[in-house]
UniProtKB/TrEMBL annotation:
Residues 18-31 have a biased composition (Basic and acidic residues). This is Acyl-CoA dehydrogenase. Its cofactor is FAD. Residues 263-377 form the Acyl-CoA oxidase/dehydrogenase middle domain. Residues 137-257 form the Acyl-CoA dehydrogenase/oxidase N-terminal domain.
Length: 706
């Protein structure tokens, strides 16, 4: 069995030939999916590790879910979650089940139609690499199967994982009941490695498809998805910076989900200011390295889902005199396995001097273990400078280059987590608004004739729903757009597109997470007291999504990164490139009479961004002004970038509407676009005025008066 709980032999000791065969199976699946045609395989849950179920012609037509089938073990596990006698069920959950307060299945529905629309109608026509050779039907099958898996298998784990949390027993972390089985089912189906390269055991599909699957998994169970997300970021960094033996013996088991990965930066006395790090790595006479120090707040620092954990650790290297400098010049990134790995054979050995000294008791994401790790003379392997374009944001060490590489990936992942939580909260709120009755519609023609109408008829309820929906669907488009910018294959465009994608990376992390927390609170506000109690789900989402504004670089740091690093980069060409893309959309969409006002508003907003960027450049003489204005500037860029997406979406919707099979879907997009331009974009003018006030009023009060 793959990834069995608490059995390292089952997890890490699989026969190499079997693993190689499994990787070949996955490669065959992805090739056939891209080729299409009669009898193509469905990428999804199958009958065993690495296998896929083939559905041909008439079978696909007869299948209720078009080829979707949860494997028997996962299906049995899913139903057990609603059996009060099952070991996974806590007393609180058992009480809810007995009172029929937990629905089967959960209310999560993955946005498959939205992704197909964005990939093939909005973004794909301008970026063919977004879908590669996959047809719309191929992608639909992949996404429908992924949706079915995460809706049925992972979503029920979210509440129970929050209730149980993680435990530290005898120096080892125990995850909530069901997590190991959920992780194993995901790995067997291949959902953890949809966009990982085929050479390492992944399906090799475009990363936009992988991003859709990652949103589904995070929406279903954010805590469980964190383990996979961090592992994917870690093995991506190793692929770009690791030695040959790491590519051969470390990356494949991470891609397959048998090993996990982490990122270890923060220490008890320092977080953002990495110059203060005390963790050291010292070279030995035999050419090896030994690393010692303490790292805190390490997500997934230990768990019982996999047979080994590969830690990527930032440490300082003493100079030839044994001194550790108080700067970043001697920082390097090291690979430190929990269990020793033989570089020649890949065989696992003894514990490698990495121990868990504690786990945090947190507000949310309780199923994700946040650990304090002690490294005591652990064998470490240095990684090289990242080969990822734009990975190094400043002149420093090779270690910082690799760290920025992984951090940027984590920041985009955090934005996707934030989007996922907002989407789940909106689902709860929208369902409640349709079903809850209170008062009557203000317009008699909208009344149902009953004693009370559903609260969705009330304008303020609609304000809360539209505010959430317009952010979520616009942000989803923006996240996909950023992904395609960073993955641009055309060498003549690549540098420009990566610069724009890098400019928008802190926006995706910070603005998405700010709005996610706001959305979760809006969902709770709409539901009133029913949103405040535990069993309705929104209370957990409010707690869970608060961390997204804090980790992977607090949002204030993201705003400074945007203003101090990303704006000046490439002599300001990244911002100029972003504005040019937005204004091109405005020019093209403005040819339609129905969108002319929206196009004019977008041009006015991009003009305000240019004006504020020029002010920030001229104000650089005052060291405080950048810090005083950075948050408002980042928010402004987020609002305008989302407006850019909504204008592209609206232009596409109007083009498709005359022959649309589902005109209601497109009409909804047009209504949300109108909301964004009439209710959200006007705030840009006020934000611009705030940016240009600088930091004078913020710094006027003496420090001792706070």
């Amino acid at each position: 069995m793959l990834c069995a709980r608490g059995n390292a032999q089952d997890v890490g000791g699989e026969d190499p030939e079997e693993r190689a065969a499994s990787r070949r199976d996955r490669a065959d699946v992805s090739r056939r999916a891209r080729q299409g045609g009669h009898g193509r395989e469905c990428v999804g849950p199958g009958d065993g590790p690495g296998k896929r179920r083939v559905l041909r012609g008439s079978q696909r037509e007869r299948s209720k879910h078009k080829g979707i089938r949860i494997d028997r073990r996962a299906a049995k596990f899913h139903h057990s979650l609603f059996d009060p006698a099952h070991e996974c069920v806590t007393p609180w959950r058992k009480n809810c089940i007995n009172q029929e307060r937990i629905a089967v299945p959960t209310n999560y529905q993955a946005p498959v139609a939205d992704y197909l629309f964005l990939l093939y109608d909005v973004i794909g026509p301008h970026a063919p690499h977004a879908t590669g050779e996959l047809s719309r039907d191929d992608t639909r099958q992949v996404l429908e199967q992924a949706a079915h898996f995460f809706e049925e298998v992972w979503a029920p784990l979210d509440a129970s994982g929050d209730e149980q949390g993680c435990r530290l027993e005898n120096g080892a972390v125990k995850t909530p009941s069901g997590y190991a089985e959920g992780h194993a089912a995901q790995c067997e189906a291949g959902w953890n490695s949809v966009s990982a390269p085929e050479a390492f055991g992944g399906a090799g599909l475009p990363d936009t498809i992988g991003q859709a699957v990652r949103e589904f998994s995070a929406s279903a169970c954010n805590s469980l998805g964190l383990y996979t997300g961090l592992t994917n970021g870690a093995h991506a960094t190793i692929r770009r910076t690791g030695d040959e033996w790491m590519l051969k013996h470390v990356v494949p088991p991470m891609v397959e989900g048998r090993w996990a990965g982490t990122m270890c930066l923060t220490e008890p006395h320092c977080g953002t200011d990495l110059r203060l790090m005390k963790t050291r790595a010292v070279s030995q006479a035999d050419g090896s390295w030994r690393l010692s120090g303490t790292k805190i707040f390490i997500s997934g620092g230990d768990q019982d889902l996999t047979g080994n954990v590969i830690h990527l650790v930032l440490a300082k290297v003493p100079d030839e005199n044994g001194r550790v400098l108080d700067d970043l010049s001697t920082v390097r990134l090291f690979l430190v396995p929990k269990l020793a790995v033989d570089p020649d054979t890949g065989a696992l050995g003894e514990p490698n001097g990495v121990s868990v000294t504690g786990i945090e008791h947190k507000m949310g994401l309780k199923g994700s273990a946040t650990c304090t790790l002690a490294f005591e003379n652990a064998r470490a392997f240095p990684l090289q400078e990242s080969s990822q374009p734009g990975a190094s944001a400043r002149k420093s060490s090779a270690g910082m280059s690799g760290m920025f590489d992984m951090m940027n990936s984590a920041r985009l992942g955090t934005g996707l987590q934030a989007l996922s939580s907002a989407n789940r909260a909106y689902d709860h709120a929208a369902n409640y608004a349709r079903e809850r009755v209170a008062g009557r519609a203000a317009n008699p023609t909208d009344r149902t004739g009953n004693a009370a109408d559903p609260i969705v008829v009330h304008p303020d309820v609609r304000r809360l729903l539209l505010k959430q929906a317009a952010f979520i669907e616009g942000a989803r488009a923006l996240a996909l757009c950023v992904r395609t910018l960073l993955d641009e294959p055309d060498e003549s465009l690549r540098a420009n597109r990566i610069a724009i994608g890098s400019l928008l990376t802190p926006v995706v992390k910070a603005w998405f997470s700010d709005r996610s927390f706001e959305s979760a609170n809006d969902a709770m506000q709409l539901m009133g007291g029913h949103g405040y109690i535990r069993e309705n789900g929104v209370e957990q989402l409010v707690r869970d999504c608060r961390i997204f504004q804090l980790y992977e670089g607090a949002n204030g740091v993201q705003a400074l990164d945007l203003v101090l690093r990303k704006l000046p980069a490439a002599e300001g060409q990244s911002l100029a490139g972003f504005v040019e893309l937005a204004e091109t959309t405005a020019r093209e969409a403005g040819r339609r009479e129905a969108l002319r006002a929206h196009a004019d508003a977008l041009r006015e907003a991009t003009g305000e961004i240019r004006s504020c960027a020029n002010w920030l450049r001229d104000a650089a003489r005052n060291p405080y002004d950048a810090g005083g204005s950075s948050h408002d500037f980042l928010t402004m860029v987020g609002v305008v970038a989302c407006a850019w997406m909504w204008l592209r979406i609206a232009d596409t919707a109007l083009a498709l509407l005359p022959e649309a099979a589902d005109p209601a879907f497109l009409d909804r997009k047009l209504a949300l676009a109108r909301y964004w331009f009439e209710r959200e974009l006007p705030v840009v003018a006020a934000l611009g005025r705030r940016v240009k006030t600088g930091a004078a009023c913020l710094m006027s009060l003496p420090a001792d008066q706070f």
